[in-house]
Design goal:
The protein is α+β, with helices and mostly antiparallel strands and 151 residues long. It contains five helices and four strands, in the order αααβαββαβ. The protein folds into two domains: 6-46, Winged helix-like DNA-binding domain superfamily/Winged helix DNA-binding domain (Arc Repressor Mutant, subunit A); 59-140, Alpha-Beta Plaits.
Length: 151
């Protein structure tokens, strides 16, 4: 696939907000026929730009949870260390988000926990055994100011 254009960006924007939107409605929103829209989505998937679809769950319905933001510093910043760390993070669904960062830490992670004991388990069983970790700095959120989704 060649580079993405303005229509592809519109498709991606709408799918980020509602991946279950019907193809007919999506096509109308981006100014394409339904078949042309479906073709473009297929190309975006084949190129790996769209890696999959997911459901955003309102975690508050299953009980209150606390978002914990975790800064990870690795022992070394070599490609081997980064790759090993990232491969290990992908194996743990408890880690909801993981970003490679610039600045004071190498990675920023987010986990959702029910309480301090739940975080202690994640820290002991997952975070502390991730490969190449030198330092872990965790901060508990007070509340989400923007809510789960922004358009």
């Amino acid at each position: 696939m060649e580079k993405i254009d303005a229509i592809d960006r519109k498709i991606l924007k709408h799918l980020r907000l509602n991946a279950r939107m019907s193809n007919v409605l999506l096509a109308k929103e981006v100014g394409l026929s339904a078949s042309a829209c479906m073709r473009r989505i297929g190309l975006l998937e084949k190129a790996g730009i769209i890696k999959g679809y997911t459901a955003v769950i309102d975690i508050s319905t299953g009980g209150e949870t606390i978002a914990v933001i975790i800064q990870i510093t690795l022992e070394r910043q070599t490609e081997e260390y980064l790759n090993r760390f990232e491969a290990a993070v992908r194996k743990h669904p408890e880690i909801r988000e993981c970003y490679l960062m610039t600045g004071g830490s190498d990675y920023l992670l987010r986990v959702d926990v029910a309480n301090a004991g739940d975080f202690e388990r994640i820290h002991k069983e997952i975070l502390s055994i991730l490969p190449g970790v030198l330092r872990i700095h965790s901060s508990f959120s007070i509340r989400n100011v923007l809510g789960p989704l922004r358009s």
